[in-house]
UniProtKB/TrEMBL annotation:
Domain Phosphotransferase system enzyme I N-terminal stretches: 6-126
Gene coding for it: ptsI
Enzyme class, UniProt record, top EC level: transferase
Reaction catalyzed: L-histidyl-[protein] + phosphoenolpyruvate = N(pros)-phospho-L-histidyl-[protein] + pyruvate
Predominant localisation class: cytoplasm
Molecular functions (GO terms): kinase activity; metal ion binding; phosphoenolpyruvate-protein phosphotransferase activity
Annotated EC: 2.7.3.9
PANTHER family reported for this sequence: PHOSPHOENOLPYRUVATE-PROTEIN PHOSPHOTRANSFERASE
UniProt keyword terms in alphabetical order: Coiled coil, Cytoplasm, Kinase, Magnesium, Metal-binding, Phosphotransferase system, Sugar transport, Transferase, Transport
Residues at the active site: H189 (tele-phosphohistidine intermediate), C502 (proton donor)
Role of this protein: General (non sugar-specific) component of the phosphoenolpyruvate-dependent sugar phosphotransferase system (sugar PTS). This major carbohydrate active-transport system catalyzes the phosphorylation of incoming sugar substrates concomitantly with their translocation across the cell membrane. Enzyme I transfers the phosphoryl group from phosphoenolpyruvate (PEP) to the phosphoryl carrier protein (HPr).
Protein name: Phosphoenolpyruvate-protein phosphotransferase
Coiled-coil ranges (or none): 392-419
Length: 540
């Protein structure tokens, strides 16, 4: 058996091929100080920056039609080179008599450390972009040709410690079978580009560089996040069959990505995506999402030491709204609690967290936290088509209370002269049987409903959704669940409101026919599920 390593898979493809180990030439710096006059170094700096800016502009233009959002990475890189803060830092070292190469390296290192020290992974990932720009600039100054990745010598799987976004965009697509990196995460630009260009990739594979030196051939299974070094003949045979099957399916599926999901009876079902970050929004739109049905905003609050500020939240919501333009972006207000703990909020330990102060209940108690989020959402509302959705609603009074707070924020905005969408749509998640059965009471104060089947099922059967032993009580098509969903759909339609489903069943081929049959208007799912679910609906 070959050596098997595990990482984070991007996409769902298999590749079998020769290894191409990509060793970036480390740029060696000759000297710290030199005798060259300051003016000459400044001129050389400015000319090189100009050349690199032009290069980036070209790269941007070359992919902007096909991949507008990815192309923006190169505009972002260009922006780094136009940033006064960066230029002034380099110039200050030049003024102290340091060489041009040394000054650039030192300035960029400092800026990179600033990004690396930031709490949010998204910002830490930007350190890679800084590195990328620095390398381009140094290569220009030292007259080093750009990487060999743009013309690979044979069909191969590229293995590297890490790849920059430029490396990924420059890759020789004719000979590239996939790539594996030792570093990287799902939110890195490189991973996103891999997904967009449909290149099978596994990132974050610890130890791959050491191990791969002894390997000639490898298999990557990006669906499983697996890398197999020096596979046996049996393994190659097994994976080549699996590969043919997957390739066939994905060739057929991709045709469905941009099609409207219309059933044979002529009913159009909206196919939306569930996301937890701005980056996933980019993936979602590229997978054919017609809107965001659920933005799990609590993910922005995880893995950090304090809550994101209004400004930080505003920027994220604004960006997602801009990506989706006039398509709906349903932002779910914080759904903390249950299995989503946020240590820095220092919430009281509860005996039954799933039955405790979670979702909207928590927001009604922690009003400041809630108001900051509502302010950020309202500010972003003018940049697209944002809707607000409250999670974990049990009774009408909770919605009234939440709407009162929302109204307060709107009043404050009006007093402050801020622009926002006053009649922003407000909806609720139906996740608790009490609200599913009393929806008529609340329907006139909301604009839409989305059924959170994950919780609705757990509360219907009183079975903790995280307890593997109770998996047998996860029965989406049980008559109890079906009759709750049916009631919700019927009430919504009677009052002319739209109803969606954003729990896992919305992206599950097994249950989609039932949901369509029950009359659901919209299904929201993980972006990767969109093509297969559209196909399912079209074939209904
Ligand atoms: C649900 O409960 O179905 C849902 C979509 O919300 P979450 O999974 O985030 O609880
Ligand atoms: Mg839920």
């Amino acid at each position: 058996m070959g050596i098997v390593l595990k990482g984070i898979g991007i996409g769902n493809k298999i590749s079998i091929g020769k290894v191409f180990l990509y060793n970036k030439e480390k740029i060696e710096f000759s000297q710290e100080k030199d005798e060259l006059p300051f003016e000459i170094k400044i001129r050389q700096l400015e000319e090189s920056i100009e050349d690199v800016r032009r290069e980036l502009e070209e790269l941007y233009k070359s992919i902007k039609e096909t991949f507008p959002r990815e192309a923006e990475i190169f505009l972002f890189h260009k922006g780094i080179l136009e940033d006064e803060y960066v230029i002034e830092k380099i110039k200050s070292y030049l003024a102290e008599g340091y060489s041009l190469v040394y000054s650039i390296e030192r300035a960029f290192n400092e800026i990179k450390s600033e990004f690396e020290g930031m709490e949010q992974e998204l910002f830490r990932e930007r350190a890679k972009d800084i590195e990328d720009v620095e390398e381009r600039l140094l290569k220009k100054i030292l007259n080093i040709n750009t990487s060999s990745l743009s013309s690979l010598p044979y069909p191969c799987i590229v293995v590297a410690k890490d790849l920059t976004p430029s490396d990924t965009a420059n890759l020789d697509f004719i000979n590239l079978l996939g790539f594996v990196t030792e570093e990287g995460s799902i939110t890195s630009h490189t991973a996103i580009l891999a997904q967009v260009f449909n290149i099978p990739a596994v990132v974050g594979v610890r130890g791959i560089i050491d191990q791969v030196k002894k390997a000639e051939e490898i298999i990557i299974d990006s669906g499983e996040g697996l890398v197999i070094l020096n596979p046996t003949e049996e393994e190659k045979h097994f994976y080549s069959i699996k590969k043919d099957e997957k390739d066939k399916i994905s060739r057929e599926l991709i045709k469905f990505r941009d099609l409207p999901a219309i059933t044979s009876k002529g009913r159009r079902i909206k196919v939306f995506a569930n996301i937890g970050s701005e980056k996933e929004a980019e993936i979602a739109i590229n997978m054919g999402a017609e809107g965001i049905g659920l933005f799990r905003t609590e993910f922005i609050f995880l893995d950090r030491n304090d809550p994101p500020s209004e400004e930080e939240q505003f920027r994220i919501y604004k960006r997602v709204a801009e990506i989706f333009k006039d398509k709906p972006v349903i932002i779910r207000t914080l759904d903390i609690g249950g299995d989503k703990e946020i240590p820095y909020l220092k919430l009281e330990k509860e005996k039954n967290p799933f039955l405790g102060v979670r979702g909207l209940r928590l927001c009604l108690l922690e009003r400041e936290l809630f108001k900051v989020q509502l302010r950020a959402i309202l500010r972003a509302s003018v940049f697209g088509n944002i809707w607000i959705m409250y999670p974990m609603v049990a009774i009408k009074e909770e919605v009234e209370e939440a709407n009162k707070i929302l109204e307060e924020v709107k009043q404050e905005f009006e007093n402050e002269g801020k622009t926002f969408v006053r009649n922003i749509k407000v909806g609720i998640m139906v996740e608790i049987p009490s609200i599913a059965l009393s929806l008529e009471e609340v329907i006139d104060i909301i604009d839409f409903v989305s059924i959170g089947s994950n919780d609705l099922i757990q509360y219907t059967f009183a079975a903790d959704r995280t307890n593997e032993k109770l998996r047998y009580l996860y029965i989406p098509n049980h008559r109890a669940v079906v009759s709750l969903i049916k009631n919700v759909v019927d009430v919504c339609h009677k009052f002319g409101k739209e109803v969606g489903v954003c729990g896992e069943i919305a992206g599950d081929e097994e249950y989609v026919p039932l949901l369509v049959d029950l009359g659901v208007d919209e299904l929201s799912m993980a972006p990767s599920k969109i093509p297969v679910i559209k196909k399912k609906i079209i074939e209904l």
